Amino acid sequence: MSPKTALIIGASRGIGLGLVRQLHADGWQVTATVRDPSRAIDLQALQGVHIESLDIDDAAALQRLAQRLSDQVFDLLFVNAGILGPNHQSAAAATAEELGQLFLTNVTAPIRLAECLVAQLRPQSGVLAFMSSGLGSVANPEGNNLALYKASKAALNSLTNSFVCELPEPRPTVLSLHPGWVKTDMGGDGAMVEVADSCRGLIEQVERFAGQGGHHFVDYQGQQIAW
Ligand code: NDP
């Protein structure tokens, strides 16, 4: 049987790199994108992983990537890249540039990327996964010190849902995933979950939901999250 195939977007470090490591160890054939391949030393050490250059904010680069990969079929497309936004996290204080950057990288760019590549998911069993956050749940009273980031992930969930509803049948299974509070540059001091544990759990969810259809908001341990 030929190996499963994955395209992981934003894999230079943190959870994205962890996903590539785990999938590679599990025998998947992985294509990983990073902004600067020459600096992705950890990724380069994983033999057989194909590395592509991509800044997710660059719409023309998304088109070029889709063109380069146009003959490939993926079992998993995972849009992981994301940013925290300005340190102050205040809507009142945010400049148009800060808001534009946050909502471009975390909301519109992931959907634009999915639009370019969704046709290459394997029919019936393909999974389209977006890295959301539990903070993106409007029912979650926590994390108001990260108000702008929270809003960006809620917006990503909403735009994902609109995108999915407009896709022709048969649609892929779509996941909005919460990785836990993970020990990465973004997760910072106090984070609880090891990258490897989060990534193993996230891949378990991908495998569990493959072929089921629908759009699900779940964490790395399989707990459903309220929208
Ligand atoms: P890191 O800050 O450690 O890594 C972020 C990754 O996103 C890097 O690979 C970075 O690339 C990439 N990236 C950022 N902007 C762009 C861009 N414009 N184009 C391409 N790649 C880009 O974060 P984490 O690994 O912790 O987070 C990964 C995802 O998980 C994010 O979407 C985040 O919001 C989400 N998340 C994380 C949580 C946590 O506790 N850590 C909790 C909930 C959600 P580069 O090296 O070039 O900057």
TrEMBL record:
Q: Which domain of life is it from?
A: Bacteria
What Pfam families would the database entry show? adh_short
Q: What is this protein called?
A: SDR family oxidoreductase
